[in-house]
């Protein structure tokens, strides 16, 4: 299955071949449209002149990395804080996974362990970790036993709750409609 989260072929192609790009896109996916967030790793890689590596991002001069993300068009609405978060994520990956994000899920014994590993990532709370776990299971075939249960509602088959369920423009529209309905329901309580 081909990743289609950025809704731009070159950005989606990077997400499909680079686990780091996918993790960074998920990290950026807050307070901006999903497509903007998942285009972020492609924008960063274009500015660097090559695919992302955790080692390079972690060791990049922090002020220069902020400038890289803030350059127009900005990678995120909050380039300074998100640059710091991306660098923290990269440093964690270097320290704990030799800079290879796929090691997070490669040998996870089950869905609970994988969720725990994802929740340990800087910038990943439970909800973000569950959504990413669902994305791994639904779109990348990373399905340790119990992955759907660990992903919670995001792991449900046939749901349209999150980026894990976006595979084309139609499913993107369905996810947006479900999110709007959830917001309306929350406001009426």
Automatic annotation (TrEMBL):
One of its GO terms (biological process) is DNA repair. One of its GO terms (molecular function) is catalytic activity. It comes from the Bacteria. Coiled coil: none annotated. InterPro entries: DNA_glycosylase (IPR011257), HhH-GPD_base_excis (IPR017658). This is HhH-GPD family protein. It comes from Nonomuraea thailandensis.
């Amino acid at each position: 299955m081909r990743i289609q989260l950025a809704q731009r072929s070159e950005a989606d192609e990077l997400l499909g071949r680079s686990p780091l790009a996918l993790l960074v896109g998920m990290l950026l996916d807050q307070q901006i449209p999903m497509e903007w967030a998942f285009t972020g790793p492609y924008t960063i890689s274009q500015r660097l002149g090559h695919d992302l590596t955790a080692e390079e991002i972690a060791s990049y001069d922090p002020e220069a990395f902020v400038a890289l993300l803030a350059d127009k068009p900005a990678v995120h609405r909050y380039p300074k804080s998100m640059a710091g978060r991306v660098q923290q994520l990269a440093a964690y990956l270097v320290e704990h996974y030799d800079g290879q994000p796929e090691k997070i899920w490669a040998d996870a014994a089950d869905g609970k362990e994988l969720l725990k590993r994802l929740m340990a990532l800087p910038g990943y709370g439970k909800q973000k970790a569950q959504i990413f776990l669902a994305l791994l299971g639904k779109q990348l075939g990373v399905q340790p036993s119990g992955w759907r249960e660990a992903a919670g509602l995001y792991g449900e088959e046939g749901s349209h709750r999150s980026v894990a369920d976006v595979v084309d423009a139609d499913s993107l529209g369905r996810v947006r409609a479900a999110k709007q309905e959830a917001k309306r329901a929350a406001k009426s309580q």
